[in-house]
Prior knowledge:
By secondary structure, this protein is α/β, with parallel strands linked by helices. It has helices at residues 22-29, 35-44, 60-65, 79-88, 139-144, 165-168, 185-190, 196-211, 229-238; strands spanning 3-8, 11-16, 50-54, 71-76, 95-99, 101-102, 107-111, 131-137, 151-155, 176-183, 246-251. The strands form 3 sheets. A 6-stranded mixed sheet has the order 5-4-3-9-10-11. Strands 6-8-7 form a 3-stranded mixed sheet. A two-stranded antiparallel ribbon has the order 1-2. 45% of the residues are buried.
Amino acid sequence: MRTVDISYAGRTVRLANLPEYEKFYRKLSGGRWETGTFQTLARNLDRDTVCVDIGAWIGVTPMWSAQVAKAVIAVEPDPKCVGILRKIAADAPNVTVLEGALAVDRSVAINAVEGFGSSETSVLDIGDGECTTVRGISMDEIMSHADGQEVFVKIDIEGYEFAIADEIAKLRNYRVRGLQIAVHPQLYEKTLKGSRLSRRLRVAWATWQFGQLFNGFLPAPRFAKFGSLAGYVIKGVLFRRVPKGADLVFERHPVRSEPETP
Length: 262
């Protein structure tokens, strides 16, 4: 597999040189993809912090983080993405790739949208054809690779976060500096049964509970476009035609207020 150097968020990162990602790379290098995520990572990572990236996709965030953090633990279930990650991480000694999905069970089925390798593979039954079984990895197993070091955790698992909230809550047992969780209420709603109203109410309640998951352990979550958790649940989930996804950012002590200039 060939690689290509892509510059984004102030750094140059070696990624897979595959034609299906060329359009995305243009968006990435143009600063039009998840700029807030890189700002959050820059605020919270340094050479004393381990980055745990659950839902590492094709390496865009973990390989960027590897230039800033002490170490990176990249967790990914999609078999195509795992192959890409192993290739591009071969020259990054501080990156560990774990193949599998965050799960309680020893194995889980994952479903692809528009084929494996896309950014929308999920344990939720939301796919459009391709499905495979992968190893389930508990939060405790993932965190064992951090060796007790302080961590910043990024989780993006396409709606499955709601179904596995109790496993995510185990982060309370570790030295967590901060946490960014992408919530996808629109995907979770697709898996529920019942009337539209009952499904929407359940999704709104689940979103509220998720935002309260780390009360007493981490500060309340921040939002890029919503003033508070209540504002997001009401305006972003409950009264929207389609619930809007968001990143919940819990930060204890950010190490920087702005991204570091290389």
